[in-house]
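Design review, sub-item: ligand-bound model
Attendees: FS, YL, KQ
YL presented the inputs for the adenosine-5'-triphosphate complex:
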Amino acid sequence: MNASESVLEPASASLPDSVTVRVPAKVNVQLAVGGRRADGFHALATVFFAVGLWDTVTARPAPGVTLTVSGRDADVVPTDESNLAARAARALAAHHGVEANVALHIDKDIPVAGGMAGGSADAAAALLACDALWGLGTDRETLFALAADLGSDVPFSLHGGVALGEGRGERLTPVPVGGAFHWVFAVADGGLSTPAVYGECDRLREQADGPGGADENRVPAPAADAALLEALASGDAAALGTALGNDLQPAALSLRPALAETLRAGTEAGAIGALVSGSGPTCAFLTKDAAASAAVAAALAQSGTCREVRRAEGPVPGATLV
Ligand SMILES: C[C@](O)(CO)[C@H](O)COP(=O)(O)OP(=O)(O)OC[C@H]1O[C@@H](n2ccc(N)nc2=O)[C@H](O)[C@@H]1O
Ligand SMILES: Nc1ncnc2c1ncn2[C@@H]1O[C@H](COP(=O)(O)OP(=O)(O)OP(=O)(O)O)[C@@H](O)[C@H]1O
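KQ shared the predicted structure:
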């Protein structure tokens, strides 16, 4: 303790002045979508994979909840109470019956509305950061329950690594992985709305199978793909590339037909697997090693089929205090 600190303020003196959390993006290497449930959500069997594109969330003491954003695409991130990080701070405070007093700052590097769970990542990071800032010591089970209330992808942003998501995606089981994988991401101009993509998936199913064709009792229950889990366990990039799958891809392509050109450009450049990431419109390309990833990234940048190209390795850990 230095001379300016008072022994009359023991509680606040023991709390940090600032807490920073780093949190990764995700790609769904499998996204099996079952029928629409009565609550409007879809039953999923999805294999989440955390990749090394990071947002950083910093929390400092301040009256009320305020939010600032810097970094890539900061101008399209809402700074009002609809921001998922601000909602996470309020939800944590409400759970503990404490006042939500925090200034949150998001330094954004995850593409916005790109199907890479950027908002969910910020929510997970805000839960961890506020928990530490306010000295709440929230147990893991409660943090995951609060995360699930905020959104289906939020628990995985806390979890990281690779995990099977069931239910609406919030019920997680860790998946063993035998190595690192090299990814290239083609970021599109403009985002896609997640509910609109699920809605288009339903519309396409009803078009194919008639009225009610998208309902829970009509669509086979989604299940994890054994070949994909085996490819992850053995660290076999070629086998993983073959097994990649996303049931939302036809819907994303229907809403954004130009994505077919992006997928073709990456595949022609030597990617060993290609798919739309989550609800899109980001396209994800698996490559066999770092050299191939550099070559695919360069070809995609030249192709004129996307706004920006990013490279990342994974799996990486979930939201972490730094
Ligand atoms: C596409 C994915 O990113 C794949 O991981 C997720 O399923 C979406 O997760 P998210 O953005 O956290 O979604 P939420 O905030 O929970 O839900 C947004 C909307 O997406 C749709 N939604 C989401 C998850 C799910 N299992 N079924 C759905 O139909 C619903 O219309 C819902 O109102
Ligand atoms: N912290 C945040 N960062 C980015 N977008 C946010 C945030 N909070 C709320 N949003 C809103 O959420 C919308 C979706 O953004 P986000 O980046 O989470 O999409 P996404 O990656 O497609 O999500 P998911 O993969 O979980 O479906 C944005 O258009 C924005 O209006």
